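Regression test case RT-17, inverse folding.

Input:
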């Protein structure tokens, strides 16, 4: 079994299609979505339907929650709030109901999935260092947990202490626990604009990160055509 794990698509259809085509080429047999299908970019409805058509496990991201709900967005960053209001209008009531019913945490095969972290997943903590990772590890009962949310690919491993490993490839060892951020498909923030996802090969116990160039000019053009904030287009090229 080879599983493609992807997160933070954020309505970027060109990046999503590129990732899914690569996953098929790489022999992936299954898919897992770690949340934030919508928000920021210009194809929320199309991305949502593309993910639903995979019929795969999906957990809820904070943007999925914000677009599915009707609560006030006034306390948010104004650019994100503007994109969320626009996204709410693009989705059908049935699509928004789908987003509302997504679960926060799931177990799939021998691993766990969550959008942000396992300690208080509903408050959307960011895991940016080993201390954040330690808090999540306390609630992790499988060897591996995959997540997203920061848009930065990262691997934390815990034995007697927590250390960070390089987010290129990992050989999972039995006596360790791993908390893995698979990076972002549609809005990377690690200074590398390419779409990022990861492939977990269960028979060999290995994880490999994939980074792919996609048609970013089309994505940027769609953002501008939709009248969304221009910085959402420029940040894509900067990978931040
Ligand atoms: Zn996100």
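Golden output:
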């Amino acid at each position: 079994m080879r599983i493609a794990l992807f997160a933070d698509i954020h309505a970027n259809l060109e990046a999503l299609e590129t990732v899914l085509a690569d996953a098929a080429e790489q022999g992936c047999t299954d898919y897992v979505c770690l949340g934030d299908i919508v928000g920021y970019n210009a194809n929320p409805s199309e991305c949502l339907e593309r993910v639903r058509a995979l019929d795969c496990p999906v957990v809820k991201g904070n943007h999925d929650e914000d677009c599915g709900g009707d609560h006030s967005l006034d306390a948010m960053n104004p650019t994100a709030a503007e994109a969320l209001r626009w996204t709410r209008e693009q989705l059908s009531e049935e699509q928004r109901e789908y987003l509302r019913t997504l679960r926060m945490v799931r177990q799939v095969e021998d691993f766990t999935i969550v959008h942000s972290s396992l300690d208080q997943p509903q408050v959307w903590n960011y895991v940016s260092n080993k201390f954040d990772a330690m808090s999540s590890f306390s609630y992790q009962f499988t060897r591996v947990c995959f997540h997203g949310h920061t848009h930065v690919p990262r691997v934390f491993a815990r034995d007697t202490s927590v250390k960070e490993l390089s987010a290129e490839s990992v050989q999972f060892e039995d006596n360790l626990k791993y908390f893995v951020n698979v990076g972002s498909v549609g809005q990377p923030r690690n200074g590398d604009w390419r779409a990022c996802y990861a492939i977990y090969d269960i028979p060999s116990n290995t994880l490999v990160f994939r980074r792919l160039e996609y048609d970013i000019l089309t994505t940027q053009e769609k953002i501008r055509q939709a009248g969304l904030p221009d910085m959402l287009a420029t940040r894509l090229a900067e990978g931040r």
